[in-house]
Amino acid sequence: MKTYELIIVRQQPTCGGRTPTKSEIKTVTTDDPVAYVQKLDPTGKLKVENKENGVILITAEQGDGMLCRYEFTED
Length: 75
What we know:
By secondary structure, the chain is mainly beta. It has one helix at 33-40, and strands at residues 2-11, 21-30, 45-50, 56-61, 67-74. The protein is 11% helix and 53% strand. Strand 4 (56-61) and strand 5 form a beta hairpin.
């Protein structure tokens, strides 16, 4: 298994003066980042990008305007 730094950024439509983004940083161990995100966000439509610097960026889009980005950087 590989260990990753995972940055999660949740975006929602602006509402009631609250900030539309919420960020979180974790260290996770997984063999499959896509399967990891599918467990966290089972109803999201996933888009996977492998960046030149080795970062795996997975975007999960919900039908209600919610968007969540998962950025995996291998330790």
